[in-house]
């Protein structure tokens, strides 16, 4: 284990899981990540390895065939996986947000149907809130589900769907005015629908199309797509929790888990960037000595390591707060904001340490430099996090004059 980003208070099972994941990352992910990323190739063998390790069931309760581990354990595993290749952590994240939402909000029938197969990785989850025209304004969702007998008919276009092609179960947030009179607040007239589909692209079931992968600057390998619903019919028992109008709260609960995950990804990428920077600084010589012996580089390494430590501590705190059953939107927002910003800065510093070689695709830091910006956007931009943090602080420190 590295000296940086250690976590106190872990039990023997947690330490064993993390050791196993770290070995897998070092042996199975890091050696092939850059090659696969340059080809934008889905990491099939890596995913199969994660399934064998049981990681698709990490947070799913034991009664459904999972390992029943905490959000903290999951976040620390994500940190290790992102250290190897951030795209792999994205494949797991969307799966677990859906599994978490099912565990917390699903009907018993929905849990019995999906969670055992999700624990094995046989059913792979994805979730979708965003649309082409709304960005972070979730209240402006226009996709709609209309009741028709024992079914709902869904229409609309969703955007930025991670695992859009490879998933077989998608949790989609739509507007559903049925039972909610005109004038109802937008967030009270939204419903999460569970859509089963075939993996792949194009028409994956009648009324549902998954166009091809979106070509991205970084975060390659994992498939990011649109999702188009055109009179898509699903049974009424595929409303998450069985009741309409609760979708916004269900999704926000899932996003809190997602923000801890993005913070963990930022920590993992930053750790890898530091490892690459400190290693290169001891190998590269200028003016007769390794550049690590120049004070300017030592200052840079000191700043990078401090940021890695600070981000890790905030991520761990946010995960533990959620595990305790307490509201953690403040802590998750802070952790996501700090970890993503620090990740960008640490990666850039490692890039600078590499000098001209950092611009070469032969060096791993070039890949990290393109991957880090996604974390500034995923699960809410820095500006959204600041809004959440500011509002919660005003709740906690309300002026009593």
Model description:
The strands form 3 sheets. Strands 2-3-8-7-6 form a 5-stranded antiparallel β-sheet, with helices on one face. Strands 1-4-5 form a 3-stranded mixed β-sheet. It has helices at 12-39, 44-53, 71-84, 86-105, 108-120, 247-283, 295-323, 329-353, 364-375, 382-396; strands at 125-128, 144-148, 151-162, 169-175, 190-196, 202-205, 208-210, 224-235, 285-286, 289-290. The radius of gyration is 21 Å and the shape is globular. The model has no long low-confidence stretch (mean pLDDT 93). It contains 10 helices and 10 strands. 51% of the residues lie in helices and 14% in strands. By secondary structure, it is of the alpha+beta class.
**Element-by-element helix/strand order:** HHHHHEEEEEEEEHEEHHHH
**Terminal Cα span:** 51 Å
Name the helicity range: 40-55%
Radius of gyration: 21 Å
How large is the share of residues in beta strands?
A: 5-15%
Mean pLDDT: 93
Strand order, largest beta sheet: 2-3-8-7-6
- Low-confidence residue ranges: none
Structural class by helix and strand composition? alpha+beta
Q: What is the global morphology?
A: globular
**Total count of helical runs of at least 4 residues:** 10
Q: Kindly state the number of beta strands.
A: 10
Largest sheet: 5 strands, antiparallel
């Amino acid at each position: 284990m590295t000296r940086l980003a250690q976590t106190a208070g872990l039990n023997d099972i947690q330490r064993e899981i993390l050791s196993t994941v770290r070995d897998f990352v070092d042996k199975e992910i890091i050696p092939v990540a850059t090659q696969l990323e340059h080809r934008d190739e889905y990491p099939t063998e890596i995913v199969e390895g994660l399934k064998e390790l049981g990681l698709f069931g990490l947070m799913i309760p034991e009664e459904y065939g999972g390992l029943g581990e905490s959000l903290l354990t999951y976040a620390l595993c994500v940190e290790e996986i992102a250290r190897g290749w951030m795209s792999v952590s994205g494949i797991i994240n969307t799966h677990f947000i859906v599994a978490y939402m099912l565990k917390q909000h699903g009907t018993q029938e929905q849990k019995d149907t999906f969670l055992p197969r999700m624990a094995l990785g046989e059913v792979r989850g994805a979730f979708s809130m965003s649309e082409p025209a709304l960005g972070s304004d979730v209240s402006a969702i226009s996709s709609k589900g209309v009741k028709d007998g024992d079914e709902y008919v869904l229409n609309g276009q969703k955007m930025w769907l991670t695992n859009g092609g490879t998933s077989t179960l998608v949790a989609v947030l739509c507007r559903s005015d049925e039972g909610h009179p005109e004038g109802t607040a937008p967030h009270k007239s939204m419903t999460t629908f569970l859509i089963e589909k075939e993996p792949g692209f194009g028409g994956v079931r009648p009324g549902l199309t998954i166009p091809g992968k979106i070509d991205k600057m970084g975060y390659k390998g994992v498939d990011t797509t649109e999702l188009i619903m055109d009179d898509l019919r699903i049974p009424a028992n595929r409303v998450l929790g069985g009741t309409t109008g609760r979708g916004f709260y269900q999704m926000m609960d899932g996003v809190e888990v997602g923000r801890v995950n993005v913070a963990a990804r930022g920590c993992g990428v930053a750790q890898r960037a530091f490892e690459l920077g400190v290693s290169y600084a001891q190998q590269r010589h200028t003016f007769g000595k390794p550049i690590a012996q120049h004070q300017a580089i030592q200052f840079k390494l000191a700043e990078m390591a401090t940021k890695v430590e600070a981000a890790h501590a905030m991520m761990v705190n946010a995960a533990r707060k959620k595990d305790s059953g307490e509201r953690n939107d403040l802590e998750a927002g802070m952790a996501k904001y700090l970890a993503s910003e620090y990740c960008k800065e640490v990666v850039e510093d490692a890039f600078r340490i590499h000098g001209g070689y950092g611009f070469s695709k032969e060096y791993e830091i070039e890949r990290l430099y393109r991957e880090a910006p996604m974390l500034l956007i995923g699960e809410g931009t820095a500006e959204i996090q600041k809004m959440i943090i500011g509002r919660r602080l005003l709740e906690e420190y309300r002026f009593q004059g």
